Amino acid sequence: MTGTIKLQNVATHEDFGKKDNLEDELEDVSKDLADIQNKLYAHGKYAVLICIQGTDTAGKDSLIREVFKNLNARGMEVSSFKVPTKNELKHDYLWRHYIALPERGKFGVFNRTHYENVLVTRVHPEYILNENLPHINSVDDITPAFWDKRFEQINNFEKYIAQNGTLVYKFFLHLSKDEQKDRLLRRLDKPDKNWKFSPGDLEERKLWDTYQDCYEDAINNTSKPHAPWYIVPADDKPTARLILAKILLEELKKYPDIKEPELDPETKSCIDVYRKELENEE
């Protein structure tokens, strides 16, 4: 994403065709991502961090399952960030995200991310008080300058990890309010989906416009060349999955140095010897 965006002007739906065709294409793209992951693992010099944000019901869990289903589990880590624990609150707000970063050679997916700290906490600033920060004694102490400083800190965090070999890609699943309503109703109507519903979902839904403003502000303040944001139309789940997968594949192809290392000259020169030894085993 480049330039300032207004989410209300960005489409939440794209029509890419029939579901079966989308699923077939996604399967091909997912296999291509798996091939890059294998090379990344062998190469061992980059990590890939995929950050996925979106409102409740945006389809984050199913997207992660479908897009990355062909990747080798040894080279893939998924972290989900919920309400901070007591131990996490004893550290700075980025600590729990930093320790979850993928190793070089691996893909890491953040299902909800460090941006919760400028989204949920901005809509509910009273949550900041749980961090026990110096000079923050009441909600009145949380000024606009506080959020500007957090954006600066997040930008510095992402720049630092990017400079040290982590490729950062951030995706916002852009869902319409009407589609969220339909998905919440389906959760109520389907017994096997009831467990996902919480009355709190309806309370948060009342704050829809506030959340949209906060997402918009966060995206505009933190989309950088080393850590870009991509806005993905999310009203249709198969389309959203394919869009994200294709963007990720296209971006990773820009790194031709990600390839399997060559054998050392001595071992390579003896390949025929090793082959004969194996073939002549009794």
The biggest beta sheet reads:
5 strands, parallel
The domain count comes to 1
In DSSP terms (H or I, runs of 4 or more residues), the helix count works out at: 12
CATH architecture identity: 3-Layer(aba) Sandwich
Helical percent range? Answer: 40-55%
Radius of gyration: 22 Å
**Series of secondary-structure elements, N-terminal to C-terminal:** HEHEHHEHHEHHHEHHH
Distance between the termini: 61 Å
Low-confidence stretches: none
Structural class: alpha/beta
Provide the residue-averaged pLDDT.
94
Can you tell me the CATH topology? Rossmann fold
Kindly estimate the percentage of residues that lie in beta strands according to DSSP.
Answer: 5-15%
CATH class: Alpha Beta
Shape: globular
Can you give a write-up of this model?
This protein is an alpha/beta fold. It has one domain: Rossmann fold (3-Layer(aba) Sandwich). The protein has helices at residues 19-43, 60-67, 86-89, 95-98, 120-123, 144-163, 177-189, 199-205, 208-222, 237-252, 265-269, 271-279; strands at 47-54, 76-80, 107-111, 166-174, 229-233. α1 (19-43) runs parallel beside α10 and α2 packs across α10.
Question: What structural keywords apply?
Answer:
single chain, 282 residues, five-stranded parallel beta sheet, 12 helices, 46% helix
Please summarize what this structure is.
It contains twelve helices and five strands. The chain has 282 residues and is of the alpha/beta class. It starts with 18 loop residues before the first helix and ends with a helix.
